[in-house]
TrEMBL record:
The lineage of its organism: Bacteria, Pseudomonadati, Bacteroidota, Sphingobacteriia, Sphingobacteriales. GO terms for biological process: amino sugar catabolic process; peptidoglycan turnover. The keyword Cell division does not apply. CDD domains: SIS_Etherase (cd05007). This is N-acetylmuramic acid 6-phosphate etherase.
Amino acid sequence: MTRITEQASNYRHLEKMSVEELTKNLNKEDQSVPLAIEKALPQLNTLINSIVSKIENGGRLFYVGAGSGGRLSVLDVIELPTTFGVSSDLFNVILAGGKEHLIEAPEEKEDDVNAAWMMLQEKNVSAKDIVIGISASGTTPFVLSALTECKKHQISTACIVSNPDSPIAEQADIPVEVITGPEFITGSTRMKCGTAQKIIFDMISTTTMIKLGRVLDNQMVNVKLINDKIVDRAVKMLMKNTGLEDYNQAKELLLEHGSVKKALDMFNMEK
């Protein structure tokens, strides 16, 4: 395989650049990320369709990752129960070192070839689920071993990698290869690779939730009512969709049923 993520930066003598030069060049490099993702959209679409199908049939999604990619997947997953009102075990993260050590960045744990499969077993992973490996290099032992074991147990696998023809992609049923090129600082895959991963996580979760019916029009109608700002937003959503003009009446209806979707369904039933 070609380790593009380890190739030398296209820029030299960064320490001699001004702030203006650094930000201009960083911005220029970041503009290549959406173009790299665009090339991988057919594979990404296949993956999302598979995720939706698995969840509709009672399965779950598991991200397996280490380092920046693994941590970014945690940030995406923790938002979903509030934003879309889904169970917290629908999207899961198996993180090298454990999510409880998220801020400690225990990078040495990415070489553990036994931990990921053990952690998946603790979550009772099965053939109903789909497991997605995250690795910029495409070689992370923690991730590779997990996909290898999943394959042995007929569990669907996918991956998000940034090098072509990697060992992890070889173990994945649906490999998503997003080739973002050499990093601005040589080998620092928290940069373009990380940006690509964050965008892809957003695309996966958002598209999946829309296809699962958790969005109406362009609105978060299943958002959890966890603070005053969200309650106010939800009341206004309910007013817009019902035609109710009295804010307090709409708020009472919302709080009685617990979500815009449930309140709207009840309102339409009683019309």
